[in-house]
Amino acid sequence: STQSRSSAASDVYKRQLLRRTQSLDIERQKSASVKNSQSWKDSVLAVRQSQDTVGQRISQMVNDLQDAPVISSVLGQIQEFSSKATQYLSTFECGKATQDAQQAVLRDLQIVSAAIQGESESSPQVPANETGDTGNGGEQATQPEQIFLAAQVKLLRDLQERINRRTENLEQSRTQIGTDQASLDREYQELSREQAMVLELVVKLYDHLVQSAMQEKSEPGGPQSQPIDATSPHDKQPSSQRPWQPGSIDDLFSPQ
Predict the structure, then answer these.
(1) How far apart are CA 134 and CA 212, in angstroms?
(2) Which of 108, 148, 182, 236 could bond 68 through an S-S bridge, CB–CB 3.0 to 4.6 Å?
(3) d(C-alpha 78, C-alpha 109), whole Å
């Protein structure tokens, strides 16, 4: 499943990749001749193979989640970081550039995994007669599209909260004596890029929802083909939202 692949990719990092890369880099720093050691090179290539495996899993997840544009887009960026790390390791580079790329993969994989896993576990079962599933002796079934819609909103919120925290930290650092202004400027540029990405993902999710709604209306048996309801809008009672359904995109950045 997508959730298990996400967890597996993250677990690879937790077990070995970043830690092993750091260890190999320390060995290189202690002795200039270690880079010529075949055993050291073999160890780097083994890490590279594991990195490549993670990249393949992420690529499969991107393909599986085309109907979840926010998650697939974030995974696409994670895949780019993973590819960079793989390329660095191919040239036996275990230093800061490689480790930064690996840390970016780990950080974002954990956010995606938490969003998918959290919504899968918190979403209650939907009765089979509400999903159109009459099999399995009337057993209940979940609605994956609802789970992934909620997960996408949660993912966007998590990304925005991370930007907010980093912005606050940078503002505090800016007032401290001896702060490297050039480093701060680079951090602010990175935050600006990430903020633009989040806003782009919000628009992408909104467009996807609008497109999906239009497709439903055009399908046989969709809303357009249903009998016209002559009941006055004033006589209708507002429908209660199921507790596990996500809020609107408008309240994405509202306080929890």
Answers:
(1) 25
(2) 148
(3) 7
Conformational region of residue 178, where left means phi above 0, alpha means psi within -120 to 50, and beta covers everything else: left
Helix (H) or strand (E) holding 23: helix 17-30
Strand partners, 126: 141
Report which of residues 231 and 219 the model is more confident about: 219
What are the tens digits of pLDDT across the range 113-167? Answer: 888 876 555 444 444 444 444 444 444 444 545 557 888 998 999 999 999 998 9
Residue whose pair of structure tokens reads 């970016």 in the numeric block: 104
Identify which of 176, 126, 160, 164 has the alpha carbon closest to the alpha carbon of residue 146: 126
The token duo for 65 is 């989640």
Whole-number Å distance between alpha carbons of 174 and 224: 57
Would you give the DSSP letter of residue 253? Answer: T
Q: State how far the Cα of 139 lies from the Cα of 198, in Å rounded to an integer.
A: 38
In the three-class reduction of DSSP (H, G, I as helix; E, B as strand; rest coil), residue 225 is classed as: helix
Whether residue 207 contacts residue 111, with contact meaning beta carbons closer than 8 Å, is answered with no
Nearest Cα to 22, choosing from 83, 105, 103? 103
Given this model, what pLDDT does residue 243 score?
Answer: 40
Query: Quick one: tokens of 39?
Result: 């055993």
pLDDT confidence tier of residue 85, bands split at 50, 70 and 90 = very high
Query: Amino acid identity of 174?
Result: R
* DSSP class of 132: T
